[in-house]
Amino acid sequence: MAPSHFRTLRRVIFAGTVTFVLILTFWMRAAPTRGQARWPASMAAAGDSLTSAVGSGPRYFADNTAYSWATGASPEVNSLALRLATRNPALSGNVYNLARIGARMGDLPGQMNTVNAINAEYVAVLVGGNDACAPTEAAMTPVETFRQQFDTALALLAEGSPGARILVLSIPDPTRLVPLFRDNRSAVAIWKLFDVCPTALARPRSDAPEDVARRERVRQRVAEYNQQIAEVCARYPQCRHDGGAVFGIRLETTDISSYDYFHLSVRGQARLAEVAWAVAGF
């Protein structure tokens, strides 16, 4: 081959290589990395009294959503919404707390219908504690029913808001409160007076085999609920689960409200917000 042909071939190869590198560089800069997501411009929180922040503020046994781990505006809590708003100011004014006191998993589909109506781009969910905190063990929601209800809720969201992303936190373990407060007379009296989560907290000072076994069954039921949440969430690409982080959290007495020794204090809501942010994937 003539020298001129070699020079021409080298120029062609060089030009092709440069073009390929430029295209690859542009693609790497333009395309988001795996797991990276656009900052949402609107957000909704669904669930029960833990998400409406009962017990954390000045309103006795009422919603204190300013202190919610999900949507609160209090700097003390530094909620998920506040953290997101620092990345995308457009989120401010587009945050909705749909959580309701006493809500069970069966209420989540209705809350998801509201999420669809407001077109929220990001949804945070913590629900299921009341399914275990029933008047009796027999009244706890059956595991299969719980799973079906959660699946229905996610299906509604996927159909009505296909672009919305969802973060689902695991249900905390209510039996962890027993060793924290079993020797606190005020806590024991309030639990009994207001019938607070009797499946887990009835007779907290008792170490009788039947009471120890009852608490373990409640803990196991919550673990089973969390397994259903994780499995169903995994079936929906837009759903992210915390991997059991909230279920495994080690609570301290200062994390719990002194109103009822059950709901979270401001400090507890702040800890929950920290966990949520750590697992949110942003």
Notable features of this structure?
single chain; 10 helices; 5 strands; disordered N terminus; 282 residues; Rossmann fold; 7% strand; 5-stranded parallel beta sheet
Give an overview in words.
This protein has helices at residues 3-30, 80-87, 108-118, 129-132, 143-160, 177-181, 185-193, 198-201, 209-234, 266-279; strands spanning 43-47, 95-97, 122-126, 165-168, 239-241. The chain is α/β, with parallel strands linked by helices and 282 residues long. It has a 5-stranded parallel beta sheet with strand order 2-1-3-4-5. Helix 2 links the parallel strand 1 (43-47) and strand 2. It is globular and about 55 Å long. Residues 2-9 and 12-36 have low confidence and may be disordered.
At the fourth level of CATH, the homologous superfamily of the domain at 43-173 and 224-279 is SGNH hydrolase
What does the main sheet amount to? 5 strands, parallel
Structural class: alpha/beta
Order of helices and strands: HEHEHEHHEHHHHEH
- Rounded to the nearest angstrom, the distance between the terminal CA atoms is 57 Å
**Oligomeric state as shown:** single chain
Query: What is the global morphology?
Result: globular
State the CATH architecture of the domain at 43-173 and 224-279.
3-Layer(aba) Sandwich
Number of helices: 10
Proportion of beta-strand residues: 5-15%
- Percent of residues in helical segments? 40-55%
Number of strands: 5
Question: From the alpha-carbon coordinates, what is the Rg to the nearest angstrom?
Answer: 24 Å
Low-confidence stretches: 2-9, 12-36
CATH class of the domain at 43-173 and 224-279: Alpha Beta
Calculate the mean pLDDT score and round it: 89
**What name is given to the CATH topology of the domain at 43-173 and 224-279?**
Rossmann fold
Strand order of the largest sheet: 2-1-3-4-5
